[in-house]
Amino acid sequence: MSDALFDLDKQDAVARHKELSEKIFYHDEKYHGQDTPEISDAEYDKLRLALIDLEKIYPDLATDQSPTKKVGAIPSRGFKKIKHVVPMLSLGNVFSAEELEDFLDKVRRFIGVEKAESIEITAEPKIDGLSCSIRYENGVLISAATRGDGYEGEDITDNVKTISDIPHALAKSAPEILEVRGEIYMRRDEFIALNKKQEEDEKPIFANPRNAAAGSLRQLDSKITASRKLNFFGYALGEISEPIAETQWGIREKLKEWGFAEASPAALCKNSEEILKFYDEISTIRPDLTYEIDGVVYKVNDLKLQERLGFVSRAPRWATAHKFPAEQAVTIINDINIQVGRTGVLTPVARLEPITVGGVVVSNATLHNEDEIERKDVRIGDHVVIQRAGDVIPQVVEVVLDKRHKDSKPYKFPHACPICFSPALREEGEVAWRCSGGLICEAQAVERLKHFVSRLAFDIDGLGAKIIEQFYQEGLIKTPVDIFKLQEKDKESLTPIRAREGWGDLSAKNLFQSINDKREIELNRFIYALGIRQIGEASAKRLAGFYGSFSILRKAMSEAQDQESAAYEDLLSIDDIGPLMAHDLIDFFTHDYNQEILDGLENILTIKEYEQVQASDSAVAGKTVVFTGTMEKMTRAEAKATAEKLGAKVSGSISKKTDFLVAGEDSGSKLKKAQALEVSVLSEQEWLDLIN
Ligand code: IVH
Fold this sequence. Notes:
Elements: H1 4-7, H2 10-33, H3 41-57, E1 81-83, E2 92-94, H4 97-111, E3 121-127, E4 130-137, E5 140-146, E6 152-154, H5 157-160, E7 177-185, H6 188-200, H7 209-217, H8 222-227, E8 231-240, H9 248-257, E9 267-269, H10 272-285, E10 293-300, H11 303-309, E11 311-312, E12 315-316, E13 319-323, E14 327-340, E15 346-357, E16 360-366, H12 370-376, E17 383-388, E18 395-399, E19 424-425, E20 434-435, H13 442-453, H14 465-474, H15 480-492, H16 505-516, E21 520-521, H17 523-529, H18 537-547, H19 550-559, H20 566-573, H21 579-590, H22 592-604, E22 606-607, E23 624-628, H23 636-645, E24 649-651, E25 660-663, H24 669-676, E26 680-683, H25 684-691
Parallel strand pairs: 2-13, 21-22, 23-24, 23-25, 25-26
Antiparallel strand pairs: 1-6, 3-9, 3-10, 4-5, 4-7, 7-8, 10-13, 11-12, 14-15, 14-17, 15-16, 17-18, 19-20
Helix pairs in contact: 2-3, 17-18
């Protein structure tokens, strides 16, 4: 844990927590949702570790909404969804021999064995691909799913059936129900060949084999998947109707027997020396492997022990990943540019003298924010160590001070927006400078429009970033309302879209069609699309669930300006909406300009009322529930998710409107308040009885 963390006061900690969480959610979506990661895995891990450290000091920040409690990203659309009976979770990390020892100590402590006692551990390559769960019933492959958010993935059965080392049928010895889990990946030689072909066809090239595998698997047309050679290694099980082995090693052997390929080399180790020896060996032969790996996975071999060890929120206690260090190189910073985001955040980006790191040419690196630049004292003209692990937007690790020019001056972070020249402000507790230009800042306007049409918002095909920028510059689309007036406007235009270079009758027609398809929109998507500060996908859903219709939400936001009002109290009672978020929300809705846009959108769109899921046949539909204390049978996150699935509104605080307080072990003040307000209090078991 870094000392600096202890100096943060609570307010700073809250801000830092928010910032880290937002970053993690953003990069999760980039990595899992869009296959376009922007930061290296190593840098991503750092974000997570910083968040975990922060939550150790301020445990109350570790709410169920924290990224530390979540896995992966939500599934992308286009494919049917498949629920995982056994969740597909993630792995914790170790980065050093010391951390490996900690991992082993924790395992021993949990199951209560002496340090001297040896626990068998399997060590296997950590394949850099996409995890997949393949279901066999009576030996026949019946479905295959991606990990998705860990609980629900995409149905990729047709695509998986094109992968040659996945058997379609298993020997008679296979149990009635068997889910084989493993990694779909693309071999290095296939990756190179595919990119060559992409280049010839003038199609975008893939940054790395993982992205290529993801892009190939995501094809709705399985013929395309079949034409891209993918492979599979099995390494774990999901649902099974009967045990097939007693150890992880045994699982590997059974899978091999049934015709699955297995990642090798692998080793069965008795202690940390043997484990680290394997790690060193595999590091040495890594470049010679036909596939990319990003580390080694250690698993407790005995499956009974695995079961006893179980899981901590998102990862098993019985396994961990030992990641390889990131690849590094030295280059020069030619310039530092400032990018302006949707909410005005100014992000510094280093323009580098292009250099090849681990086979990829790198010319930009993110510098995150002013503090990072100051901390590393990064200056224009400096030689810097940059690193990328696995993929994408690299990081500046440190400056090579020996090579610094004697006249070099510290970088001065601009205090004005480079686009609209409005002053930039840095609020207390924030690390980011923000352009204060708000609605007059073109950069922000364009980014807001991009957000409005993005995948989780209106999801308008054919309105990509480039086109939004162009139409904005031309004055065709200045606000979201203009998007829906585009066709009308275009009719009167002297330079109609269809007559432009790169367009035609058909592509213009398709664009209008995809816009028109979105004239009816779900409430949660609509709220998210507005791009209100801090309101991400999850909070948009909560707001939609709570208010039910857009007109009710708007009215409530107007009333909530008065902090003494019931509307304000209601807003704060929504799970995860705190005063800061409430402030941003109310602020958004009171702005004249936003009001005008909302009026315009309400006029031309049908914003659907929020449908409470399966509301009618559940005993808790429409009820407001608060969870407190420690649950035994499930985590609070799971309890909340189940409640929401059954149509209940989960709230973070007790009020007269609360229908039930579900009190686990060690319930404190909430229990007292519930009793005082005569809210009915349920034990965990009573709650389970009620919902079953
Ligand atoms: S075991 C409960 N074994 O790494 C966890 N995972 O960072 C079961 N991965 O989601 C996973 N190689 O996609 C396991 N030999 C291996 C692996 C492996 C790659 C991936 C997997 C997992 C991710 C976690």
